[in-house]
Amino acid sequence: xxxxxxxxxxxxxxxxxxxxxxxxxxxxxxxxxxxxxxxxxxxxxxxxxxxxxxxxxxxxxxxxxxxxxxxxxxxxxxxxxxxxxxxxxxxxxxxxxxxxxxxxxxxxxxxxxxxxxxxxxxxxxxxxxxxxxxxxxxxxxxxxxxxxxxxxxxxxxxxxxxxxxxxxxxxxxxxxxxxxxxxxxxxxxxxxxxxxxxxxxxxxxxxxxxxxxxxxxxxxxxxxxxxxxxxxxxxxxxxxxxxxxxxxxxxxxxxxxxxxxxxxxxxxxxxxxxxxxxxxxxxxxxxxxxxxxxxxxxxxxxxxxxxxxxxxxxxxxxxxxxxxxxxxxxxxxxxxxxxxxxxxxxxxxxxxxxxxxxxxxxxxxxxxxxxxxxxxxxxxxxxxxxxxxxxxxxxxxxxxxxxxxxxxxxxxxxxxxxxxxxxxxxxxxxxxxxxxxxxxxxxxxxxxxxxxxxxxxxxx
RNA sequence: UCCUCGGUAGCUCAAUGGCAGAGCGGGUGGCUGUUAACCACUAGGUUGCAAGUUCAAAUCUUGCCCGGGGAGCCA
Length: 460
What we know:
RNA-binding, BirA Bifunctional Protein, domain 2
């Protein structure tokens, strides 16, 4: 018989004569002639209560079942006479798969996130982490649904790259050469012996390749892993993270910002409507203001202001910042937080940044001082989206590349897209892990992905 | 990488130079349609590692390792 998922049994309207569940024992309590067990199979937050009485053939073994043990239970789904749950299963047979000895580190009581991070292989079995990873799955589906509804095509851009795409951060090197015995030519590593016959890296963004597809299919997006070899030790950076990158042809900066805003609103709404039960855990135990925050994001327009306006507000704020504010310098975390959390108290989009602090591919505005860049800032997380209108003029783009010290030979194909039928186009990157932080209220990015990769940490 | 706080039982923490403790978890027994069950008893320690100061160090000093928070780099 196929097993029933606990989620569907708990949603049942009527009793069911014969059911079968498989899962892990969360807790067990003994009564005089029977035992209460709570089983969780990961299909939902709730456990189901099982009544195992002493007529079971293996009752002595059942009485020894400890937290973490795996079982299959056959029995009747009936209304529970006890308080606290509507349904329970009266077991007719219990099959024991694997016991969890008393060294099983998860207790019924709450554990610290720091401790659970040391046992990433077991933490999905807790209520909180089970909920995070169900939400992560639901929102991954929501990403695809949103783009499907808007006529986008899902494309796959390479993970391995031969060029330092946008000069964004340190790259991980990829090689098939023997690191202990590198072939040398006049003192330098001879890449002729490497797999690609030239240096190779893990991608820091699929944007440049995504642009090529946008200039053919119209509206496209990528959703995949991204790698940065930065020595970042913060609660919002990882060496391996997931990014959603839409790229849209015939799209200006205003349309780009409107798109980013509706995308975030859609995802927040999806979480509110599709993950209500799991979200309740986070609003109860992680962040009491979570639902207020999410409802506000879902219902109100994002504030839009230019970089220049942002600088003016900061200068007139009479607040003392650790870093000085001057037109031309990048906004620091403290500045973004002040604007987002104190001054406007809500999500905001800052656009038209100085060209000098932004990458070569962003389109230079008519003032020739700023570029069509935009960052979406949300409370508590900071930057969740970074995007821009792309420079579509061949001459300007080559000039900007030269200024950035990039070799045009390495980007010949990128430049050719501006030579043949170039069009206005825009796109952005959304940090998917940061989105999960926003939606769950979790404050450390290491806790929204099953197995986080950070400097000095690649266990599991 | 920098600043800052911390590391004591399986977990969460106390012990501020003088006998290393509690709650939870584990084990044993009892009780009960229970539900973070309850009651009793019980086991459990290289106080992160190394050196130093002292009659005496979990406690003070130095170095290292690991973790949290903040910052930079960024999504």
